[in-house]
Design brief:
Layout (H helix, E strand, L loop, with lengths): L1 H5 L1 H32 L3 H21 L1 H7 L2 H24 L4 H28 L5 H30 L4 H21 L14 H5 L2 H31 L4 H26 L5 H21 L3 H15 L2 H12 L5 H28 L4 H10 L3 H13 L1 H19 L1
Helix pairs in contact: 2-3, 2-6, 2-7, 2-8, 3-6, 3-15, 4-15, 5-6, 5-8, 6-7, 6-15, 7-11, 7-14, 10-11, 10-13, 10-14, 10-15, 10-17, 10-18, 11-13, 12-13, 12-14, 12-17, 12-18, 14-15, 15-17
Length: about 425
């Protein structure tokens, strides 16, 4: 514990940075409606901004892993929040600098999205490098700050837009940019944990030749699909499939889901030393499986809401738990391990919601499901969305199966 105290400022900087990671992902979607109205942006352009955000993060996951191993964490930890500030400055000034601001929006998005990818690699490396037996709990609390960041960014930005007016959105962006300025100072002045000794390091070739590594990548892909699908689909599902008012889906549903996501990770961070992370992950995936089904097939709107929210609680430890298992399995792997885990999790986070979107467009017209829809008493849209949510129950089921394979493999080792 004394070791952890000596790195308290480092841990605080990492928690702040993961909050910023939530900021760079969630601020643009909240601002889109004002930007659309003020600058006549299309939904296609909105989709481009989201795609640029995701692709930049995935690229940063892979690009910066080797330099982090070579030059250490501090230079990149200091640079990452600076990119956020520069990116937000360019984003906010685009309407002033160009007649058509969309190109500036894209360029700004590339800069601040690179921060998200860098942080996914750096923060796990830094926390995992802190000496002592508290790192698993610290990793879980670290990941909880993404959920608290998501909740805070959505609520405060929405309230600020309502109070100050959409035309003042640049000042809201400028206010959020203060946080990465503070984070830059934190990383410039805090202690950094020692790098792994040469004899303790695992080479990238050794890592890539391990079958267990690919199993862990598969687990985090499935876990990313489980977690992010319900988070992204909860609002349209509750509004269009369950007939809740829009404010219920946007605020009550999304906020409760974020609270469940953060609470699950925080509880493990506080009390996780007494618990088996593998058992918690299996239990969570089983809970998520049944909650997805409850959300999809319950005739009561309140139970569908409960299913969505509790599915997020069940999924809360799947992503950080896989990071914990991987760090235990490959303690000297360095940044490359965490880069590939981030790549896997991000890939699952993209694939899961996409697959559910396909099902939600075409389920009622599929020959095997058309008769079921006709007997359901639901509109085509309601049936399709419920079918999509029911299909998503396969994601936690897959996660559970992979975790059972992991335990069986470990017992043979």
């Amino acid at each position: 514990m004394n070791t952890v105290k000596s790195y308290r400022s480092t841990v605080t900087a990492c928690y702040t940075a993961n909050f910023i990671g939530a900021l760079v992902i969630n601020l643009t979607p909240v601002l889109f409606v004002p930007l659309k109205l003020l600058y006549d942006l299309s939904y296609t352009q909105f989709g481009i901004l989201l795609a640029v955000n995701y692709c930049t993060q995935v690229a940063a996951d892979l690009i910066f892993s080797a330099p982090v191993d070579r030059f250490g964490s501090r230079p990149f930890a200091v640079t990452a929040p600076v990119l956020t500030v520069v990116g937000y400055a360019l984003f906010a000034l685009s309407p002033v600098l160009w007649e058509d601001p969309f190109g500036g929006f894209v360029a700004g998005t590339v800069l601040f999205s690179a921060t998200g990818g860098m942080l996914e690699v750096l923060l796990n490396v830094i926390i995992n490098g802190i000496p002592g037996d508290q790192k698993n709990s610290l990793l879980s609390v670290l990941h909880s700050f993404y959920a608290w960041g998501q909740l805070t960014v959505v609520l405060l930005t929405t309230l600020a837009l309502w109070f100050f007016g959409a035309e003042n959105w640049q000042f809201i962006v400028a206010a959020w940019a203060v946080l990465p300025v503070i984070n830059t100072i934190q990383f410039a002045t805090c202690a950094m944990p020692p790098e792994a000794a040469g004899e303790d390091k695992i080479s990238n070739r050794e890592l890539m030749s391990s079958g267990m590594f690919y199993l862990l990548i598969a687990i985090i892909i499935a876990g990313g699909m489980t977690e992010v699908t319900v988070s992204l689909w909860i609002s349209p599902f509750l509004e269009r499939a369950v007939n809740f008012p829009k404010i219920t889906g946007d605020l009550v549903g999304v906020c409760l889901a974020s609270i469940m996501l953060g609470s699950g990770r925080l509880m493990y961070g506080l009390y996780g030393q007494k618990w088996d992370i593998w058992r918690l992950m299996v239990s969570g995936s089983v809970l998520a499986f049944f909650c997805y089904l409850l959300a999809a097939f319950s005739p009561l709107p309140s139970l569908s809401l409960a299913g969505c929210v509790l599915a997020t609680l069940g999924a809360s430890l799947l992503w950080p738990g896989t990071v914990v298992l991987s760090a235990r399995q490959f303690p000297g792997a360095g940044a490359w391990l965490f880069a590939l885990l981030a790549f896997g999790g991000d890939s699952g986070a993209a694939a899961g919601p996409f697959l559910v979107g396909v099902i939600s467009d075409y389920a009622g017209s599929m020959p095997l499901l058309a008769t079921w829809w006709q007997c359901s008493g639901l509109t085509m849209e309601q049936f399709n969305l419920r079918a999509g949510m029911g299909f998503a129950a396969l994601f936690p089921l897959l996660t559970c199966g992979l975790l059972l394979v992991y335990r069986k493999w470990k017992s043979r080792a």
